[in-house]
Amino acid sequence: MTTLTKPEQPSGRRDGAPFLSVRDLSVQFATEDGIVKAVDGLSFDVERGRTLGIVGESGSGKSVTNLAVLGLHNPRNTAITGEIVLNGHELTGAPQRTLEKLRGNTMAMIFQDSLSALSPYYTVGRQIAEPFRKHTGASRKAARERAVEMLRRVGIPQPELRVDDYPHQFSGGMRQRAMIALALVCDPQLLIADEPTTALDVTVQAQILDLLKQLQQETGTAIIFITHDLGVVARICDDVLVMYAGRCVERGTVRDILTTPRHPYAWGLLSSVPRRKAPVDAPLRPIPGTPPSLLKPPTGCPFHPRCEFREYVGDTRCQDERPMLTLDSGRGAACHLPAEQQKSIFAEQIRPLLGRS
Ligand SMILES: Nc1ncnc2c1ncn2[C@@H]1O[C@H](COP(=O)(O)OP(=O)(O)O)[C@@H](O)[C@H]1O
Ligand code: SF4
Ligand SMILES: [Mg+2]
């Protein structure tokens, strides 16, 4: 039986450095309408064996950030600046050949849409076996055995038969599992999961989250989990980065963000989640307005046109001055409100809305 192996001690790693370190990352696209500032000065770390959740509404730059880590942007219309250091290796500006080698081997991605990520023309087994053969030089027979084993690992029944099925012969949940098998076949040390369970029903979703957690415990993989679902965050993440308009507006542990969030945008995300104990007709509190255009992001705090709390700041800083994110033991929010005021507003005005005492 093939087993997932523990990652070896990395070669280029600096002592004490996080496995993935992103510093001051900016990603801009040249479009007919102008420059889209999709990611603007983003920094974060991911450690081995831990899961970082990246949350935010649609269009906040979550996928663009992670496609930059994977080196999947088209260099012809994309300008990327900043540092992306994986296991001691600088990825920004690295040759395509280096990135290709790392993708699928050291780092892998699970996409939301398994149908478009799996080719309809090849069997599921072949699509899992090929990258394994390419990266390890294994024989066809060994790679097929590995594909069967991976399908078994992700809970596909009768994998020795299903390995020869085409993607359309799998159900949606099975295809998503097959994609996870494909992403994990080379024992990646960094796994990026971009809304991987959004299209699935809750039971399959829960199974897949448990599976990812279990695989992480076995292999020490670092995971970045992109989602807009805070229930999923609570279930799988250790640390959370809240993104808005291409920037990090709040960072902390999952407990920090879900129990004592400090940023008004994080309050909005939490208040707009349906509450299990609330009466069925209790209104949801969606965040007013819509995310800004990244062609011309707002001045000052990018959230200010939608923020109900900017009057508490007392002057025009919210409109004029970009609030910086300063971290204290990995925790912080980019907001001009003083920390004490963030705490009291949350305790007095937001927590009661969440149905918590
Ligand atoms: N290739 C591209 N060219 C121009 N704009 C893009 C491109 N890819 C993404 N964007 C824009 O970048 C912003 C962030 O997108 P994305 O990272 O996909 O958001 P999400 O947080 O939903 O994953 C969006 O405004 C999107 O329209
Ligand atoms: S800086 Fe001002 S506008 Fe931005 S979140 Fe804080 S209070 Fe609201
Ligand atoms: Mg996305």
From TrEMBL:
Keyword Nucleotidyltransferase recorded: no
Keyword list, A-Z: ATP-binding, Cell membrane, Membrane, Nucleotide-binding, Transport
PROSITE patterns with a match to the protein in the record: ABC_TRANSPORTER_1, ABC_TRANSPORTER_2
UniProt xrefs under Pfam families: ABC_tran (PF00005), oligo_HPY (PF08352)
InterPro entries: AAA+_ATPase (IPR003593), ABC_Ni/Peptide_Import (IPR050388), ABC_transporter-like_ATP-bd (IPR003439), ABC_transporter-like_CS (IPR017871), Oligopep_ABC_C (IPR013563), P-loop_NTPase (IPR027417)
MF-aspect GO terms: ATP binding
Family annotation (CDD domains): ABC_NikE_OppD_transporters
NCBIfam families: oligo_HPY
Family from the record: Belongs to the ABC transporter superfamily.
Name the record gives this protein: ABC transporter ATP-binding protein
Source organism of this protein record: Streptomyces humicola
